[in-house]
Amino acid sequence: MCGIVAWYSPSGRDLLGMGREMLGRIVHRGPDDRGEAFVGRRTWLGHNRLSVVGLEDGAQPLDGPRGWAMVCNGEIYNDAQLRETLPHYRFGTGSDNESALALLTVHGPGALDRLQGMWALCAATPDGRFVAARDRLGIKPLYWAKTGDAVLFASELRAFPVEVQHDVEVFPPGCWWTPEDGLVQFAEAVTAGAINHEETERRTREVLVDSVQRHLWPTSRSAFSCRAGSIRASSPPSRRRSTRGAACG
Q: Cα–Cα–Cα angle for 18, 248, 170, nearest 5°?
């Protein structure tokens, strides 16, 4: 559980004090570290970090090429696979969150549907680009509100100033937002279509087994048993989990 705060102000309005106060109201979400950064004149990013895996790298905001910066709360389960598909990207940390930043910088927000995990993020560049997004199921919280010409984002409702809270809304799951394109849905929680019960049962079993494997830490037992529905499996996790990165629960 980490806490993120961000604001985007197209006029360059300075909301540093507000941003820091908002971050302070959710310090309980990340007592291990605190980071913040201006990104150009239009954006400020803040992060309270709870390190689940390690403290040695992965502090946020994370930096990327061409001035990109990102704060993220969550975990990217297919981090190792994504890194393999981005061989020319120079990763600077072992944090699984950095694969989300890499996708953004290389392919843009349209590629966020490739992320498997639970996450909410805000990212920006010095030239004024800004992206906010949330996982398809909305597992990780993200709220937003408009005040004047600025847009505020935070992990909890309590982070927002009292005078703004009546305008706060839940950021919709499976969507990303940019100032240019507005709110865009990139994924749905459930794929529409005809139901084949036998195929659905087979795929549910596969997804369940894969999900459990992806959640296993390196020190966990490689074998597990899920008795519900007589589902059993015994195999090592299908992806490498970094012991250096800082996953935010």
A: 55
Please give the backbone phi and psi of residue 99, each rounded to the nearest 5 degrees, phi first: -65, -30
**CA–CA separation, 55 vs 187, rounded Å?**
32
Please list, in sequence order, all residues whose beta carbon lies within 8 angstroms of the beta carbon of residue 9, skipping any fewer than 6 positions away. Answer: 15, 42, 43, 149, 150, 151
Positive/negative CA dihedral, 244, 82, 248, 126: positive
Which candidate, 157, 89, 153, places its Cα nearest to that of 122? 153
Is 175 an active-site residue? Answer: no
CA pseudo-torsion sign 211, 212, 216, 222: negative
pLDDT of residue 142: 98
pLDDT given at position 243: 36
Would you say how long the chain is, in residues?
Answer: 249
Contact, 4 vs 71, CB < 8 A?
Answer: yes
Contacts of 157-161 with C-beta under 8 Å, sequence gap 24+, read 158/25, 158/26, 159/3, 159/5, 159/22, 159/23, 159/25, 159/26, 160/22, 161/18, 161/21, 161/22
What CA–CA distance (Å, rounded) separates 55 from 105? 25
pLDDT of res. 203: 65
Residues of the chain with pLDDT under 70: 52-56, 190-195, 199-200, 203-204, 206-207, 210-211, 213-249
Contact 108, 88 (CB under 8 A): no
Q: Report if pTM > 0.85.
A: no
Q: How far apart are CA 22 and CA 156, in angstroms?
A: 9
